[in-house]
Amino acid sequence: MVPAMLNTSNIENSRPMTGRATRLARCLITTLILLLLAFTAFSLIVWLILHPRLPEFHVESLSVSNASISMEFTVENPNWKINLWFSGFEVVLLHENCEISRGSVQVFSLRRSNGTRMKVNWINGGIKRGKTKNLGLDLSNKQVNFDVKMNGVAWFRAGKWISKEKSLQVLCKNLKVAFANNGEGELLIDPNRPVRGYPGPAHNPNPNGYAAANPPQPGTAYPYAAPPPTTGYYSNQNNPYNQQNYYQDPNSARRATCLRRIFAFIIGLIIILGTITFIVWLVLRPQLPEFRVDSFSVSNLTVGNNSLVSFTSEVRLTARNPNKKMKLDYDHIEARVFYKSDSLADTTIPPFYQDTKSETSVKANFAAAGSYVDKRVVDGINWDRSKNGNVGFNLRMISRVKFEAKAWRTRRRFLKVFCGDLVVGIPTNGRSGMLTSVPKQCRAGI
Fold this sequence. Notes:
The chain is built from four helices and 24 strands.
């Protein structure tokens, strides 16, 4: 029976393809993540700089009769840098959640920090009959509470930046209309509590304590007791709002804008630098160099009773650069030989340069002539030699290293290399002792 031969050529050829597919998938995922981070950072910076705010609505007049309905309201753009465009509004007059009449507002726009007054064009000339059975009871009290609901679409624009269309819902509640004996009603405007409509969040359906039968939709607006700004047409002396003692610091908005720009610049700079650093790290993938001890010899080791040590030593190492895109530049290399944690001798290694994916042989020569050490070091070396003739040494190196990749260079960092458990067999005849096991891998860290 002839054994079947396994064709390993297809397996070997498929491994590089699998590696390339993995790298391609990693690059695609990295690109998507970076694009998402860049888009998020750009959107955050734009929002911090522009700081878009919703428009403010004020009901100025509301006249209701059986023959006709008339309503005027004002819209203010509180943004300093953003213009507003409106595609018109659909206006509904309500009484106790019952539709009274329906109208519309034409297309209009607002420049930044400006306002305009709009008039509603009602489809039905007066009140729909049969829609408000409780209206007669309210008329006996000469006052009726109406609600006005407006739905529209708005755009924000600052220079060439245009937002997508936003649905805008405005609800102005409890508009008190006083009726005269002739059946005509006019809006009661309290100067201490002007009626203002704001697009607001849905988590606070009754911000002023008014009970509602049904919770409003997100983006609705409510009456708000605050005086209007003193910009735009509101500076008219005949406006009753200006009769109040209201002062607005003209420099406060400027200071807020300046601080917002500073914070936006700092946050944007941090995000950009972090993104660039992350991209560079993903592209270059820097790795620490690798070191191994190829040979370690000790000659003429003498240890006196007066705690003096003399010897010569030669160490040969191999430094490997595992990076595919980064070169290494070593400078100011210091090496020391230790017995456990006590230094015996030190030397300096000449600087060298490593190309990508390359290895460099490094040689260090040590010499100690009557160097003084602690008595415990002398006792430890004599004990090791008397036991099995082997003495364990440690090698430590500190170097300044710089990573380079074409035009990109890092600042010099201190690289620490530790080679431990270098066991050298010391003969008794005075010959050189050699490393018992080679090679020995070292640990490197920054």
